[in-house]
Amino acid sequence: MAEVTGPYDLIWCAGGIYFLGVTEGLRLWRGALAPEGRVAFSEPCLPPRPSEAARAFWAAEYPSVTGIEGIRDRVAAAGYRVLGERMVIGAAFGSYYEPMARRVADLRSGADAGLVAVLDAAEAEIARWRAAPDDIAYALLVVAPE
Length: 146
What we know:
Distance between the termini: 21 Å
Order of helices and strands: EHEHHEHHE
Largest sheet: 4 strands, mixed
Number of strands: 4
CATH class of the domain at 8-90 and 132-145: Alpha Beta
Helix content: 40-55%
CATH superfamily of the domain at 8-90 and 132-145: Vaccinia Virus protein VP39
Number of helices: 5
CATH topology of the domain at 8-90 and 132-145: Rossmann fold
CATH architecture of the domain at 8-90 and 132-145: 3-Layer(aba) Sandwich
Strand order of the largest sheet: 1-2-4-3
């Protein structure tokens, strides 16, 4: 994603822009967008009044997580404007984590040390989500260059 060439009418990045950074990724992609091009992305986000469990969930994996205001600030810093946004909060993540928990359990039998480490990390993430299922959020945004 750091070497996108384009031109594209739409760059869609679900759950991965944080590897580059929102501001950095949007700056990199500007040259890959066609005129009137857009970027759609999701970004981990703290809910409006995050609990300590929500903060703990993200602290382990993404300590620079912010609320939606912080994401908007990073979009603006890249020279883009927000065209639309939506928050996905709470129980919707059950559709992701519950099947993952079942698959982790299935893979435990006969797992080598490398796989065990991956499964342990997945279980830790699932446990953090279960501790605060109504506090975990992602922001979905569609943005355009200014």
